[in-house]
Amino acid sequence: TGIDVQAFATADGSRFRKRIGLAENAWVIGHVGRLALEKNLGFLAEGVALALQAEPRARFLVVGDGPARDEFKAVFEKHGVAEQLLLAGKRTGRVLREAYRAMDIFVFASKSETQGMVVAEAMAAGLPVVALNASGVREVVRDGENGFMLRGSASTAEFGRAIARLLVTKTRAPLAKEAQATAREFSREKAAEKTLAFYEETRR
User: Fold this and answer.
1) What stretches of 55-187 show up as alpha helix (H) in DSSP?
2) What is the DSSP letter of 133?
3) Model confidence at 138, in pLDDT bands (50, 70, 90)?
4) How many CB atoms lie within 10 A of CB 62?
């Protein structure tokens, strides 16, 4: 499945920040996805909560909804950082693209993805990614180049440290640039080329 790279790259993140009351200078950790336990949300919440404790100026913007919403929120309450959590609910189309652009980095902990589309969409919006090594992720994230990819058995503390490191490090800009370059590999145009090449191959 290809993505509209240009649409994500040019979306107005400032407009989304204003919509939900996020300051322009806030550090925003972001996540997009269904709030369901099979998405390894417990791990994600614990890791991000630790990063928020380390960086009180940071906020965690979550776009999506699902049956595990209350359990997810409870983790941040337990760690005393609930006021840094912003649950924006499900968004689509232009508003979803603006939500991506309102973020500074993207975090992802699922171990059961097929294509990793949200990771590629995040990179199209210029976001370096912190994720676990898993199918659908390792095809997109290149550790130290467009983000940080931790081993699948990494601890929540390691995940939190990687987030905090990416949030404040001066290397975020080159990682973001490389993320956008990576996203072009998953563009609609590239997807069409690959599909046509496959059809041509099967005809031989």
Assistant:
1) 69-78, 93-101, 117-124, 156-168, 172-184
2) S
3) very high
4) 26
Query: At a CB cut-off of 8 Å and minimum separation 6, what does 83 contact?
Result: none
pTM of structure: 0.90
The tens digit of pLDDT for each residue in 70-102 reads 999 999 999 999 999 999 999 999 999 999 999
What does the block give as tokens for 8?
């994500």
- Residue whose pair of structure tokens reads 């950082």 in the numeric block: 81
Q: State the pLDDT at residue 1.
A: 65
* Phi, psi dihedrals of residue 60, rounded to the nearest 5°: -115, 110
What stretch of H or E contains 60? strand 58-63
**Token duo for residue 54:** 């380390």
The amino acid occupying position 20 is I
Task: Find the range with the poorest average confidence among 70-74, 77-81, 109-113, 188-192.
Answer: 188-192
Give residue 152's Cα distance to chain centre: 17
